[in-house]
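Dear colleague,

As promised, here are the two records you asked about, laid out in our usual form so they can be pasted straight into your sheet.

NAME FIELD: protein one
SEQUENCE, THEN STRUCTURE:
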Amino acid sequence: MDLSLLPWLVAAVLVAWAVGAYNRLVRLRAAIHAAFAAVEAELLPLVKLADLLHTQDDEPVAGEEEPEFVAPIQGASAQLAASLAAARLRPFDPGRIAALRTAGEAWAQAWDRAEREDAHDLAGPQLPDTLSTTRTVRLQQAEAAGRQFNEAVDRYNRAIAQFPAVLLAWVFGFRPARAL
């Protein structure tokens, strides 16, 4: 074998490896986008549950007030919707994912508070049972989608941290993502 071919063979192997490693990182990023789309598809119906409560446009019946728990739920739902819209644009941005997680926790706390206060009402529950059931089922589906997103993020983060792929990640600007 001619030694003048050796540098060309090494260069060809390195280029082939780099292309394959880069394509793998791109596929892992695409998997995160797909997983986030599933999270969004499960969170949007949860956000819209607040619409099933009293809205500000509804006029209360004479002598009735809007229950105290409605405003916090609507506010938390609006915050969750805004955070979801921001995270949709860049699901790799750790700050946006952190904001989405915080908004999700605030949303869950508002609903939990409403259900706790509802349980002590002697006049009967103010939240319809179907609404609570729908919320529970949708929340379980959203949590499952969140686990898939977190697994995709974990695979991606492990891939960009492995040597020698870490060199390509640095060159092409692949940054670690944040799980929900």
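NAME FIELD: protein two
SEQUENCE, THEN STRUCTURE:
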Amino acid sequence: MHISKEVKTGLIAIVALALTVWGYNFLKGKNILKSTDEYYVVFERIDGLIESGTVYYKGFKVGNINSIKFDQGRSNKFILKITLEQRIHIPKGSIVKVMSTNPIASASDLEIIFGDQPGFYQSGDTLQSVISTGLMGMLDPLQAKLGNVLSGLDSLLQGLNQVLGPESQESLKGAIADLGTAVNSLKRSLSNGGDLSNSFAHLESVTGNLESKNDEISETLDNLAGITSDLERADLYTTISSLDSTLHSIRGIMAKIDQGEGTLGSLINDSSLYTNLDSTAYHLDALLKDLKENPGRYVQVSVFGKKDKKK
């Protein structure tokens, strides 16, 4: 089959045009040979975002930024159209976050973070956007907080200067000087040969002695445990109960004696009984003495079995 030169030229021009269109879209990050899904994202700022920027999901490239348009007069926001080459289903509640991929070059890309709501977005829907603070974004609030802290510290120092007059400042200086003296004294005490150092040395010596006497202390504790066990086995309760009962009886007897009951009580409390007993003992002693000295007065013995009657 013969193909004319004009047809060949036309085919070459069509192929070149197709390659040009494909190359242009490829440079923009769009592959026209693959089926894609398109979504829209709205941002108030697009720091570092450019057309043909990359869209990631969990670090994996799933698409590119197709176009960036500024909606002036309506929302004054930037509308980004992203093209996803990977056929992924984006759940409801998902967000698109700006992440800094090259802080030095201030380049940023997009990252899709799936949500957990039921249902999925359809091609052409608008996704929710979030701007990641990045390094500089984190430094800004930190710098603001640092400024607030410094401002508060300056106000505190000014307040202290107003509250602390010359006399108070001198007192404060004296207190600081005394504190320094106390610290120096403590250092001297803790140094070799100091009071605290010697005390710690003595304590260490005592601890060493206790450690060396550990066996003897253990034996003493064992003996003490044995004595305690013997005391537990002894019927101390019954013994103490018997002793208490005996003491109770003695108290009763003493109470009766004190009240004059019985012979012993009468003897202690009634002096006449003691006097009578003493008198009786005296006369009895005299009688026995007289009986011993003059037995004939009381006993008469006759040789013939009859009493010797006095004429």
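A couple of things worth noting about protein two: Helices lie at 5-27, 134-163, 166-190, 195-212, 214-233, 236-258, 262-269, 271-293. Residues 24 and 296 are 176 Å apart (CA to CA).

Best,
R.
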